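Provenance and format

Records in this collection were gathered into a single text stream. Each protein contributes a sequence line and a token line. The two records reproduced below are adjacent in the stream.
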Amino acid sequence: MQHRTASARRARRLTLAGAAGLVAAAAATAIACNTAGTGPAAHAAAVSYDPLAPALGFNSFVEDRTVLASTESEGPVATGGDLVLDGYYNVMIHPVGSYTAPGDTVPSALVVGGEVDFGGGEPGSVAKVLSGGYVKIGDTSGVSVLTTDQNNASVNTQVVPAGGAYNSTPRIELNSKEPADAVAQAPIDFGAAFAELRANAAALAVCEANEVRMVDEGLQTVPKGGVQPNQRISIQGMDPNRTNVLNVTGEDLNDLSELVYLLQPTESGPLLINVDTSGTGGEMDWFVKNQPGAGGILGAPYILWNFGETTRLTLTGGDSLEGSVLAPDADYTDLSPSNVEGQIIAKNASHGTVRANGGEIHHAPFGSTLACEDGDQTTPASTTPSDVTNSIQSETPSGDGPSGGSEGPSTGDSTGGGSEGPSNGDRTGGSDGSHGDGHGSDDLATTGASMRPLLFVAVALLAVGGAVVALTYARRSTRS
């Protein structure tokens, strides 16, 4: 009896060992298959990134033409095309520039990818570049860069029409002594930057995050497109620890009397507002309404207005606009004397006109990251500031240059880099092999090869487990 009991105990131990081997083998096989892409699909992971990283911290970042008429930008200004002076404008009145061109030790306050069109605006126009910032001009063929005055005395740098005298108008005047040869350069790849910004705007338009609601004064839900004229609207459902998304139409924003933030957006709980202007043909004249609860300069860095498919956006008046504007395909015009608390991203921009005094652009750059579900939807490629900078590339293949190939640049410090960055708008990756849907052929080949050792282990464990179980039953049958 004692002998049988000991034998039974041994049999149970062998049986348990065999079962454990089978379980471990099954688990290893499941992990291997799932990692290789042959098992059940895992739930989509949230991709967190700064969608305005390609704008390099500029208060106004424009792809083509910029007109400076009135009044001022607290931070730096960059335009990929020509610059027109059409009034009196102050640039970077506070020392907040975060972008420094290659070879410089001083931040760039005004970057012009094309030329300065001195003939396109008012003859007496002046742009003052303050806080010791530098000026960069891609095409200096029509200007003179002066570092001395008529008496040949060393003075603060000025840019005037070719052949013009010091202090003549129109002019760009610095409050620092920038060397003349440092002015003539185009350090930013605006094409790469705007390819990325457009991809980001498209991805944000379908961002799957915590969708918040518009409610009326009776706290009844108001659907997108359902705001009535002069209706007071509140934003309900904000999560302080997640990306929040509000979907509205341009008509909603013009119809409401106030947009009340019941909870102020924060770095950990930013708010993305997707504005659909398809009902007005992609164009919008916006009389900005009061936004109580947004927090002014405290909440504005965590609000992003996405006008991804808008082709014309004009601020006609009203209150200050709280937050940054992402409108990469829009002709943007500011006719409102009220302020913008954030960044302006546009295709073309007019900051004021001869007849209308535009408001100030306060330096409240977007200061958070947005996390959208990275599943079947298009996800953005990520960018580093260096990837949209035309710096000298030493011993670097052309595919790793400023644009990162045709698909846009790699991730910035807010988004992570390499394979962690999401893909560009067309769901194809660059040289790092990242793909929007996560199923590129190169990725599968690499993943399959890297999983072979684990698959071999799984097969071995299955064999050992099966052998142990068979031996157990054979011994029990012999002893019984």
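Adjacent record:
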Amino acid sequence: MVTARAPATSANLGSGFDTFGVALSHPADTVTVERAAETTIEVSGAGARYIPTDPDENVVGAVADALDAPAHIHIDKGVRPSSGLGSSAASAAAAAVALNDLYDRGYSAHDLVPVAAEGEAVVSGEAHADNVAPSLLGGFTVVRSDDGATSVDTDLPLVACLPEVVVSTRDARRVVPESLTMAEHVETVGNAATLAAGMCRSDPELVGRGMDDPVVTPARAELITGYAGVREAAFEAGATGVTVSGAGPSVLAVPKPGRRREVAAAMVEGFADAGVGARAYQTEVGRGASVL
């Protein structure tokens, strides 16, 4: 029997659509696996009743198939489904690490990125790695279309505020513009480069400035009740940057040093002003999945 933990993540970070991601120190999913003749799945924790236990419909079933590693799998959800915090990716990453260890497959964390991405395809229809890469590798990650991923360790405080609303991934994809102007392209590339440099330097001011995105974030923000007020409140409380986390509805903020608690409180209050309940995770860029 093997147990592994994999962290929640935040993808896109504004200017890095389908490319950038970060691991969060918490929350996280925990997956326990035990050898079996065929794969079976149990789920407990946050939103467990909404998660299918049929291996053909669950991300961990796809991971077990990809590794040829049938097992009884128990998922303890710490990351709420449909949160914009990489819930399915955390399960897929933890399962990949646990099954790799259980069956002694010998794969590295980088090797497991495309394996875990196959699990993501069960949920989204496409094998995106922008969430599974940071969940497996930790830190700040950049993924490529060839399933390659680069990770950078960084020391950065974060606040992830999760409102009590649901934004479907389908709707979040539907509102993404199909084209952009040359000016928008140049601005986005410049912001993404600034963000990457800030991550390498663990510089919250650079990261915050680099999160600005003129294309995807404004479209997705319209799906999140209270977003504009939450964004404004976070900046007033000491954030350097604010954006939609993944497909939403979570909102991610980078606080100035010593301002994480104030930013978290301001974001929760901002949602409350819009009539929406919310909880804030005072977190930071964290480590990737590991066997416990």
